[in-house]
UniProtKB/TrEMBL annotation:
It holds the Pfam family Sortase. One of its GO terms (molecular function) is hydrolase activity. InterPro entries: Sortase, Sortase_dom-sf, Sortase_F. It comes from Streptomyces guryensis. This is Class F sortase. Keywords: Hydrolase.
Length: 207
């Protein structure tokens, strides 16, 4: 397993999110979730990163909201499994996401990681529409200290499992950043989803 600098999360972080049980039951591709377009990918060679808001002190998150895709979900803490991959929220709880609680908390300096299911056997789950998110969209994370961290989406990308860029996704950052991850890409009836949708965002304000 490949390791990265932010909390040793390996590339199998979201494997358990990706079975695609709903697509198996309804016919592969019939209800495929939206995938990000090339226009939402990060662009290189256009200057430095946009300036963000000052980092917040560490505080565990309790809830994530993404208004443009109607996400409003509680967050549970996720730990590593014995094999070293990130555990996942219970599949039966469709409107539940998780954050890697041994890593950066959303809003403090560094890269915070949130993951959730795209679907389960009964239908769409919390991050089903993540691939439809656009640059500039707002992500709100309520924190246990009573503050809300506000993030702006910088890019939405999809990667197949064989070319997942560990360091780009999980690597340490010099400003408060957030990654939101679910399954996506191609789909196989035998193995489920063959990749991941990753949202890249940075802190722009807090309240």
């Amino acid at each position: 397993m490949r390791r990265v600098s932010n909390g040793a999360i390996g590339t199998v972080t979201v494997v358990a999110l990706c079975s695609g049980a709903w697509l198996l039951g309804s016919g592969a591709g019939t209800h495929a979730p939206p995938q990000p377009s090339a226009a939402q990918a990060a662009r290189s060679g256009q200057g430095g990163e946009p300036r963000g808001a000052p980092a917040l002190p560490p505080s565990p998150p309790d809830r994530i909201r993404i208004p443009s895709i109607h996400v409003d979900a509680p967050l549970m803490g996720l730990a590593l499994t014995p094999s070293g991959s990130l555990d996942v929220p219970p599949a039966a709880k469709r409107n539940l996401a998780g954050w890697y609680e041994a890593g950066t908390t959303p809003g403090e300096k560094g890269t915070a990681v949130v993951a959730g299911h795209v679907d389960n056997a009964d239908g769409p789950a919390v991050f089903y529409d993540l691939g439809a998110l656009k640059k500039g969209s707002r992500i709100e994370v309520d924190r246990r200290d009573g503050s809300t961290a506000l993030f702006s989406v910088d890019a939405v990308e999809v990667y197949d499992d064989a070319h997942f860029p560990d360091e780009k996704v999980y690597g340490a950052a010099d400003r408060p950043e957030l990654r939101v991850i679910t399954c996506g890409g191609g789909y196989s009836r035998s193995t489920g989803y063959e990749g991941n949708v990753v949202v890249f965002a940075h802190l722009t304000a807090s309240r």
